[in-house]
Amino acid sequence: MVRKLLVAALTLAVAAATVVFVNRPADAAAAAVSITATRASNGTTTLTYRATVLKAGTIREITMAIPPGSTGRVTSVNGTVSSASRTVLRWRPARTTKVAVGARLAIPLYGLRLPAGGPWTLALKTIGTTGATLTSGAGVLQPLRTYTASVAIRATNPIPAQRTNLTYQGTITRAGALTAVRMQLPTGATGAMTTINGTLTVAGGYATWRPKAPINAHLGARLAIPVNNVLLSRYGGVMTLAVSATTSTGVVLSSGSGTAAFIAPPAAMPAVAAGGFAGVPNGCPDQWPTTAAENANTGTADWVIPTAMNGQLAAYLTAVSATCDDTVDLRVSPGGTGSVGAPGSPVTVTAYRMGYYAGLGAREIWQQLNVPTTIQPPPTTGGTSSSGNPLRMTTAVNWTNTLSIPIDKNWVPGTYLIKVSDGTSATYAPLTVRDDTGTKHALLIQQATTTWEAYNSYGGVSFYSSLSGGSGRLSFDRPYGDGQGSGQYLSLEQGLVFWAESKGLDVTYWTDNDLDQFGGQLPQRAGTIFLPGHDEYFSLPMRAALSQAISKGVNVANLGANTSYRRITFTDSTRRTWDIDRYTDGYNSTTWRYLGDAYASQPLLGADYTCAVLGNDLTTGSGWMFSGLASGTKIPGFVAGEIDYVWPGLYKQPGLTTIASGTGICHTNGRPAPMQATAYTAPSGARVMNGSTFAYGCFLVQRCPSNWTVPAPSVASQQAVATIVANITEWVSRGDITVPSGTSAAKVRVAVPKHPLQTNAQP
């Protein structure tokens, strides 16, 4: 009868490697003591002590050392077990047991729970009924080998939207008869999947493999189950996928999860033809004044519209941009009451070129006094797409022309605000004048006209009016309802213009509409392009042109965030209206990323949109972006507007580095979110920097949107950001642009409304 003895947990009194019994060296060698361990199904360990008999006799007892700290309810076979000391067990046979010289003993001890550590040197001694030692010696017990599932998932072609063969690997951690392996598939995976040496069923996002017959899986065996012909979703990422192996009764033989990266490289873009430059028209110069020469002209502060003059007066131009020898029509609604077509108050129309001009911010270029106006009809909202969806486009295309403005040799290329005033109220209409002479400039600053229009709710609705009621087509044939008619120019973009011209940089300008039309010419127009604070809405030609320009060596500094995030299509060659798909999946289907991860902003620019924020502090670091600033300097409210960061599941350009980081509090949910400014060098040698916050431009003129936490940055913050922008300019241009340090931008005050923010979260 086998008697069970509880061996309590005891404190180790001797070192783990101590030999409990002292033996003669010859005996120890001849005894050939060995100790092996196996893991039982209940989690305990069975130790088996083996030794060779050196002297014949009848066994009275066998004493065996165990690792100090061992616990458990210990039993054996053909005898009883008791405790001789804290680290020694005594086994006595249940019946007379005679042994001859050379016999091999094997005594199992069941139910032990071993401590961590090892290996341990443990002694064995066999005593005969006469008291003689029949055998003695010591053996080494190696730590019990344990197994984890160690799941790994391998893919032959881990590219989203493509087909791949997956192999799920895992280790058996409990022996048994294997009858099924359940494998979690990548999110959205489809396809007529196949396997080998068994059957495969697919349901609920899992594939289950079953062998033709149960397989006797031993402990530590390595599984490798192929799942072939998997069509991955166009959305990838770093996915954690579960694997479990079971018996027919549901006993788990292995269970765990592994990660697999399904990362989409940048989407291929169509080639964009450069086209030729039109000849310089008669009366237009073939070379324009330098920025420094232009800004040496007398400026004026009269361009500013005081808030007291905000009113119903509204105006828009029939062109977003123009070049020398063009004519642009101005349409003015004088406001007030009266029948359509009745005379309104006459207005003065003045064109101001925006720049530095000794800190005044603009120069008067052209003016027309006492311009007659007529009462215009109300804008209309409506329209239906070819698929029957309501477009809800607001347009004032039914307004009549008030004045034609000739763009002649006096209109030096740049950004312009056309000020319309009746003496009581006033408004702006923005215009960008291009340099189409074919001159290549060091820097081109882009105006985010499509984004201005997306947020424009003048006369009806904008894209953001509501999820179900926002526009699916936007028109430039109406005034801007914000920025006193300037759109987002004054709130986010004028600062870059003011700063660049204060430094005398060789700078030129164009708009989103021009990138769509002339994008193939970008390498011929500039060595470096600045994208402004909020340049969210990109057509395919815009995105393709920017990608192609980078591949041809054009440097890009995105001094903003949430860039090239939503996908639009201009409706015709006039580019006066553009469509956006809000019908397939609401705000989600309007994004470039809805086409797949390959179309996200990160593969192109380095980081991707996170969320909208109202302003959090940035603390400077020690990298090149902050050269000239003390590390640890705080810039209050600089992480503002909207922010980007490097998504771990999206493509990262080789060599991509994070050059600045911070945290913003998301406007929609109040949760913290990371902001990361990035930089990389493309194979062409082009440098690409992603600024990841809206705040660069407005900090340069100490005038940010009123709903940000810091609407009026301090002089210290303005100077810090000016230093940062100078560092960015010199780095991204590969040293081709040197920024003078002597000129300091001044604060320019102009009324700016609060800046509207995104109302949806990242899909």
Write the layout of secondary structure elements.
Layout: E1 5-7, H1 25-31, E2 34-39, E3 45-52, E4 57-65, E5 71-75, E6 79-85, E7 88-93, E8 98-99, E9 104-113, E10 120-128, E11 133-141, E12 152-155, E13 163-171, E14 176-178, E15 180-184, E16 198-203, E17 206-211, E18 215-217, E19 222-231, E20 237-246, E21 252-262, H2 291-295, E22 314-317, E23 321-322, E24 327-333, E25 343-354, E26 362-374, E27 380-384, E28 390-395, E29 403-406, E30 414-421, E31 426-433, E32 441-447, H3 449-454, E33 473-475, H4 489-502, E34 507-511, H5 512-518, H6 522-525, E35 526-531, E36 537-539, H7 540-551, E37 555-558, E38 566-570, E39 577-579, H8 602-605, E40 608-619, E41 634-645, E42 657-665, E43 672-681, E44 687-690, H9 696-700, H10 715-732
Parallel strand pairs: 23-31, 32-34, 32-35, 35-37, 36-38, 37-44
Antiparallel strand pairs: 1-5, 2-3, 3-9, 4-7, 4-8, 4-10, 5-9, 6-7, 10-11, 12-13, 13-19, 14-18, 15-17, 15-20, 16-17, 20-21, 22-24, 24-29, 25-26, 25-30, 27-28, 30-31, 33-39, 38-39, 40-41, 42-43, 43-44
Helix pairs in contact: 5-7
Can you describe this structure in just a few lines?
The chain is mainly beta and 763 residues long. Helix 5 packs across helix 7 (540-551).
3D structure, described in words:
This protein is mainly β. It is 11% helix and 38% strand. It contains ten helices and 44 strands. Strands 34-32-35-37-44-43-42 form a seven-stranded mixed beta sheet. Strands 4, 6, 7, 8, 10 and 11 form a six-stranded antiparallel beta sheet that branches. The longest helix is centred in the C-terminal third of the chain and has 18 residues, at 715-732. It is elongated and about 130 Å long. It starts with a strand and ends in a 31-residue tail after the last helix. The model is unreliable at 1-28 (pLDDT under 50).
